[in-house]
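Lay summary. Proteins are chains of building blocks that fold into shapes, and those shapes determine what they do. In this project we predict the shape from the chain. Here is one chain we studied, written as its sequence of building blocks.
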Amino acid sequence: MSEWRKDPVVDRWVIISTERGKRPFDYKEVEEKRKIQVCPLCEGNEKLTPPEIAAYRTVGTAKDSPGWRVRVVPNKFPAVKTEGEAALRQRGVYACMSGTGVHEVIVESTVHEPGLDTQPVAQVEEVIRMWRDRLLKLRKDKRFKYIHIFKNTGQAAGASLEHVHSQLIAMPMVPAEIRLEIEGMKNYREEKGSCVMCDMIRQETAEKVRVVADGEMFLCFTPFASRFPFETWILPKEHLHDFGAIRAEQLRELASVLRDTLKMITAAVKNMPYNLILHTSPVNQDEERIYHWHIEIIPRLTVMAGFELGTGCYINPTPPEMAAQSLREARESLLPDDMGVRGGEPACLTGR
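And here is the predicted shape, written in a compact code that computers can read:
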């Protein structure tokens, strides 16, 4: 029987189509067709990108030259512009403001690979550290209210370049999705007296059926009301509202959990396209300490159609319990030395 499930954070319903119950082998392997071209993100091609903003480099190497490990450059085709004030203007019933913001590309490795799953844990740790460092830098600009960090991997997920990278957009407003989560978390706390995300962690840890990886400081699971097949979340077990405040030991474990989760996802369906989204609290306004930051990994195996677009509800043909089991099985197919996390057990994590 299919089942309606409600997201405990936002007022959104999902149809979990248990009758379809699609497992990984029910999805076709995604074919990535790329034209042979010079990659502007590869080491040695630094002059093909806009001037470097930040980088982790070998001591003695010059800006915009080889020798970097993680590199940040402005997006060559930015969605927003850095100049100007973000003043709200009213035009009758319509509101608008200038396209003020920052749009950056974080080049995550010198190696020309599509995903973080192929990188060493130490490299993933440096990527996450750069996410934090750029967030802390850009929040000093009081024009910005939210720093959005995301990854598009695979053409179906919107990636225009194959080389492993993520993006950042600084925004002069708090996006609607984050506002919905903040309101949902506030309402839950007023009603229950606790954090909904912390309660989710406790229940998922107890039930185990949707747990993908259980670390000392982070839990990875397929959410109860998953919108998409193999949708996966990573949450800090400690209640933390601000990703920018992540500690060194948390950063190291998150790198291992994230890398291993992506390995399981890409092992379940070869070349699985996905979006990775970091949800954190807004900046430069009253701190939303009620918020609980987290990472959402959204595989792109299904297409939103009329029902989803017309109702805001989703139909998920792969129950999250089945997805979690499949991901755990995919973990077992990988070499032990490649993995630092155990599903449903304390993690044996590796890092630098």
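What the prediction tells us: The longest helix spans residues 248-268.
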